[in-house]
Amino acid sequence: MGSGPQKDEELSKIGNFSLRRKRINFALCWFLAKKLAEELDGWLSASGLVKSADVRGVIAPHAGYSYSGRAAAYAFGNIDPTSITRIFLLGPSHHYYTPKCALSRATVYKTPIGDLPIDLEVIEELKATGKFELMDLQVDEAEHSMEMHLPYLAKVFYGYPVKVVPILVGAVSAENEAMYGRLLAKYVDDPNNFFSVSSDFCHWGSRFNFTLYDKKHGAIHKSIEALDQMGMDIIETGDPEAFKHYLSEYDNTICGRHPISVFLHMLKNSSTKMMIKFLRYEQSSQCKSMRDSSVSYASAVSKVDP
């Protein structure tokens, strides 16, 4: 295999996991899969985390791996896969508008690390409630918020018979966030279920139409961190109403606000008591002037509270 333009182009995109939409030869596909696996292994090892069976969920970023891959490892590195058979994957919709939650029509998600079959039985069960719509495959393939969790999940659960339940969370009203939380809460009480919630945190800069700056914190990036930390502290309380009020007051550009809110309502309405703890926070760059921009990444685990 040569090292021409195609290989160089593909290597430059591996951190953004654009592989499944490109036609490449088998040798190149194997090479990229190996590189991706090594990259994930490196981040997971560097996190130094101990796997725990008490970890039943994560909140993790979904930017390209060159930006958020290291931060995401602090969520996925906690997972003990031995007793998990089903993963509920909740991600926000970036390009497709719906006031509801949408289910995948796919039967399997393919990644360079391994395939993740869809749990069709649970999809049918959720569809039967009449509260979900079905997203087209084009919408499914275009949405990166869930896609970017797939390689990490395939890596951590490699060799284990796990299925996924992808749920695209649209621009859901506060009332419907609570409704979906109540509807999905019963799945939290099954110890074989796991929950992967996809979200980046503050998108700061004029290109995101968000330039809130509280100068009492010093540099702009410190103000951004303080704003994000306030949100993370509230999420850790598990109170969806407090999170709603925080978003209403500060309008922090947390793109996964709806999946996080649904997850908080799920925990609130389940009989299994869980606590959320953030373990890592990073920014894509440190903003120092109003011309700068950045995206924040935060990783958390949701553990059974003994």
Automatic annotation (TrEMBL):
Q: Which Gene3D superfamilies match?
A: LigB-like (3.40.830.10)
Q: Which InterPro entries match?
A: MEMO1_fam
Q: Record's superkingdom?
A: Eukaryota
Q: Which Pfam families does the record cross-reference, listed alphabetically?
A: Memo
Q: Which family does it belong to?
A: Belongs to the MEMO1 family.
Q: What is this protein called?
A: Protein MEMO1
- The scientific name of the source species is Rhododendron griersonianum
